[in-house]
Amino acid sequence: MDGDQPWNPEDGSDSLPEPSLDEPMTKPLPVIPQASPPTGVMSAERIAMKVLETRLLGGERTLRRREVAAAAGVSLLSARKLWRALGFPNFGDEDVAFTEQDLSALSTILDLVRAGKLTEEAAISVTRAIGQMTDRMVVWQVEALIEDMVMQQGIPDAVARKRLVSELPNLLDAMEEILVYSWRRQMNAGVQRLAVRAEAGLRASEAGREGDEDDAPLPLARAVGFADLVSYTSLSRRMNEKTLAQMVQRFENKCAEIISVGGGRLVKTIGDEVLYIAETPAAGAEISLALSRAFSEDEILPQARVAMVWGRILSRLGDIYGPTVNLAARLTALAEPGTVLVDQTTAAALGQDERFVLDPQATENVRGFGEITPVVLSPGRGKGLVLD
């Protein structure tokens, strides 16, 4: 869209403005008629929810979607692409659903594209990452607060959900401050892990997998591990909702703590299984052994099958992909409860480290990989991963 051409919200364009724009488009905000005050008396719960919403959204809802797009100087289709990426529901033309803060956020994203700092594709991808991660985070936090109210105040779940509306405002500022603090710390760690130290890992991977054409195009070298609880399905069928929730939370908390202390990253939890990565074969081995030991010693949780493979991966959308991930998953299914399996290449990378003992097993035909010799990984000299 040329900066000298008039903006037309009906032009059918499905693209964000070109980065060649020298300055963001500025347009006067449309005059919005004030909504009539509601009739009748609002309940205390509705008043509390209205106060909370106004605080969270930065003001009253006064704008319709076309008005926000027009004020930001972008087509409605382009604005909707960004709103969909954030996870917003569809609003109709007559829905007064947006605030001045929504306009400011949309303009901020568009300015990055107009200034050439992000392409349209990158802007949508970054926006989608924020939307998906904060959505999951909010659900987690709300359920944690409700569960705590039920336990500490001795009230039913339904009552706690209503009471949360009036109690949450006391926590908002602190939670927001922690969120921004954590994001900055995680961004620093992520840049170090995914950019600054990536080259060393690739060199180590090339040395261990010389001539492996399947792995060569992938940009990162990582230790990829899975930990899978044994007999989780049969156990979950015998548990009530409260007991099952406690077991799942105990499993996730224990995994997150061990992986974090070991310097790894918990990629995701899939029911009774966790996927994690580490920057070196030794770090991945330490984490894997610590997870196996922790579940074997836990008086509530069952044992776990654990497997770890060192190799190249593709990191996208907060997840990881590639043959290394698939092989680690296949080895997990072969592992005996309470044991850790690695492949031969990973074992070779750990072979000179006295902290580990490696015991090759009988060759297995692994789907998608052919003949693989699993190697049982056991602790050698040293204390292993020490948890506080």
From TrEMBL:
<dbReference type="GO" id="GO:0009190">
    <property type="term" value="P:cyclic nucleotide biosynthetic process"/>
</dbReference>
<dbReference type="GO" id="GO:0004016">
    <property type="term" value="F:adenylate cyclase activity"/>
</dbReference>
<dbReference type="GO" id="GO:0035556">
    <property type="term" value="P:intracellular signal transduction"/>
</dbReference>
<feature type="region of interest" description="Disordered">
    <location>
        <begin position="1"/>
        <end position="38"/>
    </location>
</feature>
<dbReference type="InterPro" id="IPR029787">
    <property type="entry name" value="Nucleotide_cyclase"/>
</dbReference>
<feature type="domain" description="Guanylate cyclase">
    <location>
        <begin position="223"/>
        <end position="332"/>
    </location>
</feature>
<protein>
    <submittedName>
        <fullName>Adenylate cyclase</fullName>
    </submittedName>
</protein>
<dbReference type="Pfam" id="PF00211">
    <property type="entry name" value="Guanylate_cyc"/>
</dbReference>
<dbReference type="InterPro" id="IPR001054">
    <property type="entry name" value="A/G_cyclase"/>
</dbReference>
